[in-house]
Write a structure and sequence with these properties.
Distance between the termini: 15 Å
Number of helices: 9
Order of helices and strands: HHHHHHHHH
Helix content: over 70%
Radius of gyration: 18 Å
Shape: globular
Number of strands: 0
Structural class: mainly alpha
Strand content: under 5%
Length: about 260
């Protein structure tokens, strides 16, 4: 069962990455969370947009179909970390002049994606790479720390901006404020679980289920009614949720010490 969880999580994550790359190519712009608000830290010329899109597609396909899973995940994780180091973080610290916790949200979205890529790289079967179990365990550990930091930040956002979260919840759902707080608490517990590996299997399985429910109840309906000018962002948000779901599902297949490796 745990092997199926890991492989299903890998597929969810990779499908999200491929779709983000296709959006990048189709619309000719970076995904909204991938660059700082002004885009000043990444090249604005079209070749840069298409190169990033192509790397996303190639990495996602490589993760999906095996054989190059390790290399694809490492390339993607490295790309995302470079974007953080030369793009988001300098902009938030030096360039924006009005950095707040909320403005860091897109930074943490990229952090979560990078964490997922590293976890997947660390879970590749032995015959796909020659790295020692120690290297793979470190990849998993770093990926889980990055993912947990992002999840904890999302939880804090739910508390700091609870009424914004409430307004984002479909109106047909009763007690929307309650669900905003409930989701924040669930994210907080999940982030702590991943960071300290407490009841890791059951909590990350529940986290993946919760995010999957969001996708069905919240994200897909928003895509269906979205005006054309917002469709790119709505699909990208859905892809992010699918990637987070996939990462949580992948982590749920680990044992407490993070040493299982079942990806084919």
């Amino acid at each position: 069962m745990m092997r199926h969880a890991i492989n299903t999580g890998k597929w969810f994550y990779a499908l999200a990455i491929v779709t983000l790359g296709l959006l990048n190519m189709y619309y000719g712009v970076y995904p909204y969370m991938l660059v700082p608000a002004t885009g000043v830290w990444l090249p604005e010329f079209m070749i840069g947009v298409y190169v990033v899109g192509a790397l996303f597609i190639a990495s996602g396909v490589g993760i999906l179909f095996g054989g190059r899973t390790y290399l694809s995940a490492i390339v993607l994780g490295t790309l995302l970390l470079l974007i953080l180091l030369i793009g988001h973080i300098p902009y938030e610290i030096l360039g924006s002049g009005k950095s707040t916790f909320l403005t860091w949200e897109n930074v943490l979205k990229v952090v979560a994606l990078a964490g997922g890529a590293l976890v997947i790289a660390g879970l590749v079967k032995e015959d796909q790479n020659t790295h020692s179990p120690g290297v793979k365990a470190r990849l998993i550990s770093v990926g889980m720390v990055l993912y947990s930091i992002a999840i904890l930040s999302f939880a804090l956002n739910h508390f700091l901006y609870v009424h914004g979260v409430e307004s984002y919840t479909p109106k047909w759902i009763p007690f929307r404020l309650f669900w905003a707080y409930f989701t924040g608490i669930a994210l907080l517990g999940s982030g702590i679980s991943v960071l300290f590996r407490i009841k890791l299997r059951v909590i990350t399985m529940l986290l993946s289920l919760m995010i999957l429910i969001w996708i069905v109840v919240l994200h897909i309906p928003r895509i269906l009614v979205s005006p054309p000018e917002y469709l790119n962002s709505e699909i990208a948000s859905t892809c992010l949720a699918l990637a987070y779901c996939g990462t949580a599902l992948t982590i749920s297949g680990l044992n407490r010490h993070g040493t299982d490796s079942f990806i084919r």
